Amino acid sequence: MNSTTLKSAAGAAQMARPAPTTKSKSDEFVRIENVVKKFGDSTAVNNVNLNIAKNELFALLGSSGCGKSTLLRMLAGLETVTSGRIFVDGEDLAAMPPYKRPVNMMFQSYALFPHMTVEANIAFGLKQEGTPKNEIKERVADALNLVQMGKYAQRKPHQLSGGQQQRVALARSLVKRPKLLLLDEPMSALDKQIRQKTQLELVNIIEKVDVTCVMVTHDQEEAMTMAGRIAVMSEGHIVQIGSPSQVYEFPNSRFSAEFIGSTNLFEGVVVEDEPDHIFVESQDLEARMYVSHGITGPLGMPVGISVRPERVKVSRERPGTPHNWARGVVSDVAYMGSYSLYHVRLESGKTVVSNLSSSHLMSEGAPAYNDDVFIYWSPSSGVVLTQ
Ligand SMILES: Nc1ncnc2c1ncn2[C@@H]1O[C@H](COP(=O)(O)OP(=O)(O)OP(=O)(O)O)[C@@H](O)[C@H]1O
Ligand SMILES: [Mg+2]
């Protein structure tokens, strides 16, 4: 037998550390079926299947060139699919004429018209559609209120901060009352501090409106802060879909584990497989690894074990547990404010990162640079990865 199966009840892990559930938003609004997009010989989007519920804020996350914008552009109807189908609100997008598509996209570089006031920028799309003047006035005022930019209505874009311009761009998208709002790297023009503030503002605004939102980002913190669910993409594929905590706590592959946050990845082989745990032997650890959840498989199967830095403990004392520990030397300590990052070089040569609270660092007997130490973690802290 060389197949792998998830342990019962979706992994014993879920018993030890239940994966949080997302809000139950059951009614499907977007359905992406076997979608492929090729440009000549190269495949930008490779057989993507995805359902997005009404009023969800969904993030496509992945590194540059993995196909995020292309998928979003197909949702907007700006790019045709090479094969597969996309349904929005039950209707096949390909069969819908562009003006009937209930979709609005905010582009990766959301240029506002520099010579127009904020108000005129927001009104622009409605004017083009021939919306009656009174209605334009009302809707622009509502949109300005929504993004709290009412008092800046007469300013020009260059008289606004980056975050304010961003909100105007959002108002310009929302004023058309799209059912599906597509945001391509909405924060890309902002520096880090404004970015974090704007992320939360944007979520608040979107939650006030009856809209389903798909956003694209290559910034995992941004996806985790803003989205209810995330699809991790790599080379045109979707690697994993889940809530931020599901993807972080239960990565399904080495790619996901390393892409979302940082992790310690140990390679080993299965040496014992029990219903509620497995033992793995790794060259990096003196003790066997005992993992209480994840995937079970045949003896000798190569697996990766992912252990997040905040789950790795560092001590000068040998841990009481017979499993999940190794000897090493503290090779670096970086003080980060509320926490400190320890780098521990194991006898195998591998460096393990541990994230310890700085209050722990201040306590008596805390390990210091160049100390001989032990690293260890609990059986529920590791995740078994077979891909
Ligand atoms: N019009 C096009 N013609 C040819 N190739 C394209 C075209 N648009 C995109 N591609 C290619 O498709 C792949 C995916 O591009 P896409 O713009 O979707 O990436 P992305 O994930 O949005 O990246 P980024 O984070 O850099 O914006 C890339 O290899 C890109 O070069
Ligand atoms: Mg892009």
UniProtKB/TrEMBL annotation:
Q: Where is the ABC transporter domain?
A: 30-260
Q: Spell out the PROSITE patterns in the cross-references.
A: ABC_TRANSPORTER_1, ABC_TRANSPORTER_2
Write the Enzyme Commission number(s) for this entry.
7.6.2.11
The reaction(s) catalysed by this protein are: ATP + H2O + polyamine-[polyamine-binding protein]Side 1 = ADP + phosphate + polyamineSide 2 + [polyamine-binding protein]Side 1
Write one Gene Ontology MF term. Answer: ATP binding
> Which stretches of sequence are listed as region Disordered?
1-25
* Low complexity bias spans: 9-19
Transmembrane region positions? none
Q: What does this protein do?
A: Part of the ABC transporter complex PotABCD involved in spermidine/putrescine import. Responsible for energy coupling to the transport system.
Q: Which family does it belong to?
A: Belongs to the ABC transporter superfamily. Spermidine/putrescine importer (TC 3.A.1.11.1) family.
The molecule here is called Spermidine/putrescine import ATP-binding protein PotA
State the species of origin: Paraburkholderia solitsugae
